[in-house]
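Hello Y.,

Per our agreement to keep a running log of every chain we model this quarter, I'm adding this entry. I've kept the format consistent with earlier entries: sequence first, then predicted structure.
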Amino acid sequence: MLGEGLAKNLGVEPGDDIVLLVTTASGGPNAIEIKVAGIFFTASKEFDDNALRLPIELARKLMRVDGATSWVVLLDRTEQTKATVEHLREVLPTESFQVIPWTDLADFYNKTVLLYSKQINLMKYIIATLILLTISNTQTMSVLERTTEIGTIMAIGQRRSRVLSTFLVEGVLIGVIGGVVGVSAGWLLATIISVVGIPMPPAPGMTTGFTAEILVTSGMAIDAFVLALVTTLLASTLPAGRASRMNIVDALRFNQ
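Predicted structure for the entry above:
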């Protein structure tokens, strides 16, 4: 099987015969005639322009070797990579085998993850700032509108700490309700968009486009909820402190 780019460069199609000419492990030439069974493509255009696949027995015959210089282990779940690498390093002799995880070889992937992580963190800071300003303004207006009420409850013996905790609890409730509603709405919207699909053009290094979906994980949902809760609580701290420090007399005659 030939990579899509390689087949195009050679001008061959499934069913055509080609000759593979290689330099064997001992340094001599060797050739074999084979029939193209099919064409494959992956996410990497560079790989598709140079790669071909053939049975291991045929490859050994072509290279005139009995073993293999490397083995590729494919996992059903990517998150099992670390545990699998540790297990293989324990059971395989280090003098004969070197176990390398795919993350150590995927330089482009690692740089892409780092770039997107920085962009996402920047978006988190922007969202947190917006929440802080919005909730702080809302709570400040609430304190101003309830100034007389605050003065009244403190005049009848309510402690300032109780006033402070009342506004903080109010901020926590806003954060909890807003976080739950926001995460639920985001998950629902992501599900609907994923069902429809997002047509995407070919990414850099790819030859074909793809249909994207939005994946919402439990970690993302918890992260979003915590962000809403913590920023709302922080935004409520200043207005709550201002309310608890009010002068009772000035608060009672605020609207007079």
